[in-house]
Amino acid sequence: MKVNLRGKLLTTAACALLALSAPALGVAGDTIKFGVAGPHSGDLASYGLPSVNAAKVVIDKVNAKGGINGKKVEMLIEDDVCKPEIATNTATKLVSDGAEVVLGHICSGATKAAMPIYKNAKILVMSPSATSDELTLSGDYPNFFRTIAPNAAQSPAMIDFAVDKLGLKKIAIIHDKGDYGKPLAEGAKKYVEKTGKGQVVLFEGITPGAMDYSAIVQKIKQSGADVVVFGGYHPEASKIVTIMKKKRLKTKFVSDDGVKDDTFIKVAGDAAEGVYAAGPQDNSNNPQAAEARAEHKAKFGSDPGAFYDGAYAATVAILNAIEKSGSTKLADLKKVLETEKVATPVGNISFDKNGDAVGVGFSMYVVENGKYVVVK
Amino acid sequence: MVLLKEFKKALLTSLWFVFLTFPIVVIKVDPIERTVFWRWQNAFYMAVGTFSIYLLVKFYQHRKENQPKSSDAGENKLPISSLIHRILLNPVQRNIFIGIVAAISIVFPHIFSTYQTNVMTTALMYVVLGLGLNIVVGLAGLLDLGFVAFYAVGAYTYSLLNLHFGLGFWTVLPIGGLLAATFGILLGFPVLRLRGDYLAIVTLGFGEIIRLILENWGKFSKGPSGISNIPRPGFFGMHFNLEQSVLYTYYLMIILVIVTIFIVNRLQDSRLGRAWIALREDEIACQAMGIDKRKTKLVAFSLGAFWAGIVGVMFAAKTTFINPASFTFLESAIILSIVVLGGMGSIVGVVFGALILILLPEYLRALSEYRMLAFGAILVCMMIFRPQGLISNIRRTYKFEKKSPPPVR
Amino acid sequence: MDYFIELFFSGLTRGSIYALIALGYTMVYGIIGLINFAHGEIYMIGAFTAFIVATVLSVYGFPLVSIVIISGLAAVVWASSYGYTIEKIAYKPLRHAPRLSPLISAIGMSIFLQNYVLLAQTSDFLPFPTLFPDLEFMEPIAHIIGTTDVIILVTTIVVMVLLTLIIKFTKIGKAMRATAQDRTMATLVGINVNNVISATFIVGSGLAAIGGMLVAAHIGQINFYIGFLAGIKAFTAAVLGGIGSIPGAVLGSFVLGLTESFATGYVSSDYEDVFAFSLLVLILIFKPSGLLGRASNEKV
Predict the structure, then answer these.
(1) Full-model pTM
(2) Contact C37, C103 (CB under 8 A)
(3) B148 and B219 share a domain?
């Protein structure tokens, strides 16, 4: 077949030119440029897209009211596929396009790769989901904030709960080999060894996306564990609990923030009953949370996905800081973020000097009748 | 009459596509709320879309067939590719062409933004990766689906040596390359007997094994948390800020690309290079000619891996953070696509292939969520329209021209 | 001993699913020598179609048995249609192209299909309706082998037998074998090779769709990305057994499934895939064309 490719080349060239000229066209400074970065395609898209929706909901609302200090907020949405090398391109693109604040990135790895670029440009970055301890506690990234608790706080919380509250001593720790789950699981293991509470009878990683976890479930049974502590996200967790139910295992299941997501209950159905998960403080009585949910439903016709609340909270906090300080300079924003509390779906929060949210405290939840309720 | 027939066919095609895409595109269910949305408008768009695309394609084909064949029979070349060939064959024009490319690459970062420079640097890395894989796949004809493993070896060599022993970029650059080459030989040994697609799956497995080890052996590689704060390349102890550093990395990559092209070009014409091509064309005949098959294959693997290792070191230095997520099978697939799309065995082709495949997704960002959809579709279309690659290799041909007999008077 | 049996059955379940997908790979490879990387996506589309149809039917209150049958049929029909169409669009024009071009076209198709489902449906994980309720009499052995495991095993065996019969005795099956042996000769004896290739894609895609539906029902969830890993694993299984050989694909799948299961059970699931791939390399070193593959002697 002989078909003209010249046309295709021309189109590509036109596309390229368009992309090249885009930054040049967008110099008008009468908007606040709000970057949103995360995986919007590929296998992890389900963790990135809800944050885009959250930003859209909040920003549309703000713009409908006339913007902030008379300026409209403009969104710059960039995909990083959760890959470090793409994330650096994403970050340079956002910086080149003049983003003044950034919501993201979603994965810890991508965030770590992108941070030096934002740091150099003195741009405030707030992630709804990157939990790596290094990001805040190392002090390397003064411009980084997050609305989710770091691993360092979460691992002990899960173990304490399993041992002290539930009184279970034999612990099987399972993780998904990911940059979120594995450090969390390792932290939990270290904590058990350090405190001498209980005993780790199994420590293993599973392959995310594998079609069946029967073998690992049998192994959990064989190990004689009383409780499974899982570090990872809800798709794997729901597969494990489904298989556990099928194999008639009565072992308790304690997990993390990545599982404290309504999608988990939806997907796992009956098998989710009795699963414990750590999560940000109870927000069921928080009118903000209910409102955020209702807004998503009205705008997109479905329930929000993972990290929606956190992203919503981050957007609100960032925009509030811009409004109060009347600037987008890092130092000014930082001052507001550290001193003023904001009402968000994850609670009334401010930030400490490392960039971690204060007031997000942990609660343990249990699934009862298809809902996450706080454990009393 | 013909027109009517075409219309009928177009109608049928669009009906078929409406049927095909019906469940996925029209129906959307919410299994929790137990509600069903029927998005009929999508079926309509689908119908109109396929109908017009079908007619467009037919129209193109029609016009093509009616065009007088301009080039000689069997020549199935793009105007641009034959143009490039012509330029490269003429020494004067070639020098001018190289001059223009050199001038563009020197001024590029000064005209465009840091972002453009950064993306271009990434593309240049893939040029070198593509040239490395081109040795294995394009020249020696060994299908390698795990090329990314060597890239990972290079990247981890730099970051680990730097982390534990504080070795600098320039020290590790050759080490990374050599270590990757060693891994190439390690992989090469067991697979020497395998052919074709059996080789492909073993290399794929090898790539996955390397990634899984990096992921699981936390004590050695820091696991999925990755290694951060890897220093950028230095220049006699000078310190750069970010923009300067991006600029510097860009020029380093340009130099690396030039060096690679030079060496690969020389290799291609060497005794070894011709042995590779002979091996690709016919293994048995090649053996019969007295070429050591084992050695030739191993050298191909290790030389290909060498470049991947070098780029791996560059990669770690450029992103300053690495974790195993960067070295998945998809990455190998992209590098392979670069080689095949550009034109197997053709250096210019690989350069074009890398620039297109790496820059395309970046410039497709304008399409936001349709970015990867378009990328997949373009990959398919390019293969259909140019199955032999954008710029197919010019085969070295030697003509024995008989002296024309003296005219008889 | 119980533990061993449990692991054995979980390996069998895995192996059956791999087998259903691997058959499509191996059949296509046998006939046109193409590694069809988009095959995993066909599996995903089959599962998605089953999901959509089953949910719609259950919303409109159909009885369970009819839901299972209709959604299963729908999955097979649509997945086969996709397989057929993809072959026509992405591979047929490349019939005489260099060997690697269709491979790249397949990779492109795979990326396209993933993002097509992502855009048209959702990126989220969705709960797959319970199609196979736990049977009463299975209860005493439920901790060893569940109802869905049995259904998966039985379905796989039935499908394998049917496929063998088709390939052995029907006209199209004979044509397939002939084409796989020698395409030019097949054309000469009057076989319409294009039809045979289409038929291969249709049958292979249908099998993958059955696999997709069973897995989704087994683990109870679905997402646009499930095809990728399944595809790679099934491809590995097909090569392990000797690509192009139908019994080989089945054997390879079970070997792979059992290896993974025992590696997880007795060693560590961290290195489950490392074991699987190392086994592959080992087997190929000693048998370079897979367990049951034909050793192709090249004539000079």
Answers:
(1) 0.87
(2) yes
(3) yes
Q: Report the gap between the CA of B221 and the closest CA in chain C (Å).
A: 15
B150 Cβ contact partners less than 8 Å away, ≥ 6 residues apart: B132, B180, B183, B184, B304, B305, B308, B309, B312
Helices (H) and strands (E) in chain C, counts: 11, 2
Minimum-distance CB partner of C104 among B193, B201, B383:
B383
Q: Does residue B106 form part of some domain?
A: no
Chain A, chain B: beta-carbon pairs less than 8 Å apart = 143
Split at pLDDT 50, 70, 90, the class of A29 is low
* Sign of the torsion angle spanned by Cα atoms B109, B115, B118, B124: negative
Whole-angstrom CA distances from C168 to B244, C95, C291, C292 are: 69, 26, 21, 18
CB B159 within 8 A of CB B316: yes
Residue B221 lies in a domain: yes
CATH class of the domain at A28-149+286-358: alpha beta
Which residues of chain A lie closer than 8 angstroms to C97, CB-CB?
A: none
For C231-274, write each residue's pLDDT tens digit.
Answer: 889 999 998 998 888 889 999 999 999 999 999 989 888 888 88
Domains in chain A: boundaries: 28-149+286-358, 151-256
The question of ipTM being above 0.95 is answered as no
- Closest residue in chain C to residue A182, using alpha carbons only: C270
Beta-carbon contacts of B96 under 8 Å, excluding residues fewer than 6 positions away, are: none
Q: Does A88 touch chain B (CB under 8 A)?
A: yes
The answer as to whether B342 is a domain residue is: yes
Give the up-direction half-sphere exposure of residue B132: CA atoms within 13 A in the CB hemisphere: 33
- Is residue B252, in this structure, part of any structural domain at all? yes
Helix (H, G, I), strand (E, B) or coil at B226: coil
Asked if the Cβ–Cβ distance from A205 to B356 is below 8 Å, we say no
* Class level of CATH domain A151-256: alpha beta
Q: List the domain range (segments joined by +) for residue B45.
A: 2-64
Q: What is the pLDDT of residues B178-216, one digit of tens each?
A: 999 999 998 888 877 787 778 888 888 889 899 989 988
Total number of domains constituting chain B: 2
